[in-house]
Amino acid sequence: MRGALMDYYLKILLVICAAHELAGGTIKSTRDAVYKKYLSLRSLPFEDCGSLYQVSYLDIESCTTLPCSMARNATIKVTVRFDDNGNGVSFLKHEVRWVFNYIKTQAAITPDPCDGDHGCIESASGGKAYWANIFVNETLPVMKGSMLWESKDANDQNLICFQVPVVITV
Ligand SMILES: *[C@@H]1O[C@H](CO)[C@@H](O)[C@H](O)[C@H]1NC(C)=O
Ligand SMILES: *[C@@H]1O[C@H](CO)[C@@H](O)[C@H](O)[C@H]1NC(C)=O
């Protein structure tokens, strides 16, 4: 009889533990979802052009509205957060182009590639964050266009792709 009662209590205890774990998991995933929402609200809007890893946040220095106003001869810091699905991404080769009237020209990015040497990529909550500077060449036309940003791994596989409307100013 006593043994049966103990079994009964043990079963209740297990059920309670399982319920706690379940609640814990729910709270964690809710918190992650809330954090992602928070990032997306603070992010500049952008068009994803086929990222393997979801971009959760984009910041372009001194740009708060689109199109991003970019002065010729300026060097502008770009910060991106993405979810690398726990793959420990530590190398990014950037390929960034300006697009004006369907004509693409290569943009100058530093540091490129981004590897362990420059402190340009780090772990961030929910994935990774990287930064890079883009140079607004004096030869760019003063008009509306877009900045097309791709980042690849060491095997040239595309990991990130986003596009943002910009306007070049003097
Ligand atoms: C571009 O910037 C560099 C460095 O800030 C400066 O030396 C140069 O005079 C600038 N050129 C023009 C055309 O403003
Ligand atoms: C700026 O553009 C000119 C002409 O396209 C190019 O020759 C030059 O290398 C560019 N400068 C930088 C820093 O990318």
From TrEMBL:
Extent of the signal sequence: 1-25
Q: Name one GO biological process term.
A: intracellular cholesterol transport
In terms of domain of life, where is this protein from?
Eukaryota
Identify the CDD domains for this entry: Npc2_like
Q: Which InterPro entries match?
A: Ig_E-set (IPR014756), ML_dom (IPR003172), ML_Npc2-like (IPR033916)
Tell me a Gene Ontology molecular-function term this record carries: sterol binding
List localization entries.
Secreted
Q: Its GO CC terms?
A: extracellular region
Domain (MD-2-related lipid-recognition): residue spans on this chain: 46-166
Annotated keywords = Secreted, Signal
Name assigned to this protein: LP08842p
